[in-house]
Design goal:
Elements: E1 2-13, E2 16-28, E3 33-37, H1 44-52, E4 59-64, E5 67-71, E6 76-77, E7 85-88, H2 100-109, H3 117-130, H4 146-159, E8 164-168, H5 176-193, E9 196-201, H6 204-210, E10 213-218, E11 221-226, H7 228-233, H8 238-243, E12 248-257, E13 261-266, E14 269-274, E15 286-291, E16 297-300, E17 309-319, E18 323-329, E19 334-340, E20 350-354, E21 361-363
Parallel strand pairs: 3-9, 3-10, 7-8, 8-9
Antiparallel strand pairs: 1-2, 1-4, 4-5, 5-6, 10-11, 12-13, 12-15, 13-14, 15-21, 16-20, 17-18, 17-20, 18-19
Helix pairs in contact: 2-3, 2-4, 3-4
Length: 365
């Protein structure tokens, strides 16, 4: 439904060019909810705006539903209003002098999509009912809450019946509880409509919860693409491992490599790691041994654990709601551990730590 090939874009800044996009390649299937995730300044919004036609790339090609909308080589640039897209902005972008009905109807009444009055009314009523704002159509948009205004912006985009919906951090201005509720509502709605969605966010939890697939961006490039569970459990690079969720990374060197596991030598000793893909790794390669805090097993010193054991001292204990977070000193290396609150270790106490080989992973430094 959406193909992006070799797209590059730079901006002139202080007498030099800043590369915002450095050869982006993406393919989105029909009905897919695809998330661009990355820190501020990584190029994700520039990519979204390039698909929308609000930015003109320097090279590459963009195709929507089989129609070429941009190609530097073919000299094609379809303006935004003629692309089969809808867009929802971070700032809602509602027209404050109009009521809710007027905000939704305006794109259908003006520009290239002018519809008859009856058709406009039918579309407005349909999307308003879909989003639960049918009782607000005659209200001034400025009297609505932030969540309601964002629903109006979404209704306006859906009324265009786009092939691809573009969303630029649409929930970031809402309070956390509302964000959490709307994530599920939004994902369910897109699946119900079968609408291909390209969604931009810097919020890892939002991306992991909503995306069918995620592309993690770093400095104008795609660092890794995959399903949320794959990116979280088996990040390939140090950047992805550090950016998505919380993780412990211990520098080491691969000193044994078999078909299904590796042994990594670190300053804390040797550790076994089950690997699902060798990815060109070889004995002698530098790497990081990674493990998520919730996957580390913690018991009192002298307790019976599985493989990859090491003793240490609890340096710090913090309460985080669902449980307790420990910082453990393992001979000069601090390891973060998250455990259920039924585990009660105190600062200064000796503990035994284990890194299960099935949950550990290797990443490139």
């Amino acid at each position: 439904m959406l193909e992006i090939a070799g797209v590059r874009k730079s901006f002139a800044l202080d007498r030099s060019n800043v590369a915002a996009l450095q050869g982006i390649d993406l393919n989105l299937s029909a009905g897919e909810f695809f998330v661009l995730l990355g820190p501020s300044g990584c190029g994700k919004t520039t990519m979204l705006r390039s698909v929308a036609g609000l930015e003109r790339p320097e090279t590459g090609a963009i195709t929507i539903d089989g129609t070429l909308v941009y190609s530097e080589r073919a000299r094609v640039f379809v303006p935004p209003e003629r692309r089969p897209i809808g867009m929802v902005f971070q700032s809602y972008a509602v027209w404050p002098h109009m009521d809710v009905y007027g905000n939704i109807a305006f794109p259908l009444q003006k520009g290239v999509r002018q519809l008859a009055r009856d058709a406009v009314d039918a579309r407005v009523q349909s999307v308003a009912k879909l989003l639960g704002i049918e009782e607000m159509l005659d209200r001034p948009v400025t009297t609505l809450s932030g969540g309601q205004q964002q629903r109006v912006a979404l209704a306006r985009a859906l009324a265009l019946q786009p092939k691809v919906l573009l969303m630029d951090e649409p929930l970031s201005n809402l309070d956390l509880k509302l964000q959490t509720r709307l994530r599920g509502d939004l994902k369910a709605l897109m699946k119900e409509l079968g609408l291909t969605t390209l969604y931009v966010t810097h919020n890892q939890n939002e991306a992991l919860e909503m995306g069918d697939r995620i592309a993690v961006m770093d400095s104008g490039r795609i660092a890794q693409i995959g399903a949320p569970a794959d990116l979280y459990r088996t990040p390939r690079t140090e950047f992805v491992a550090r950016f998505i969720g919380e993780t412990n990374l211990i520098a080491g060197t691969i000193d044994r490599l078999d078909s299904d596991f590796a042994r990594v030598q670190t300053q804390l000793g040797a550790f076994k790691v089950v690997v699902t893909s060798i990815n060109g790794r070889k004995v002698g390669d530098r790497c990081f041994l990674g493990i998520r805090p919730e996957d580390v097993i913690l018991t009192a010193d002298g307790g019976v654990l599985g493989e990859n054991q090491i003793s240490g001292t609890v340096r710090d204990v913090n309460f985080f709601g669902e449980g307790l977070a420990y910082t453990c000193d393992l001979g000069g290396e601090d390891i973060r551990v998250k455990a259920h609150r039924s585990h009660a270790f105190t600062a200064g106490g000796r503990v035994r730590v284990s890194f299960p080989a099935d949950y550990a992973f290797l990443v490139e430094p």
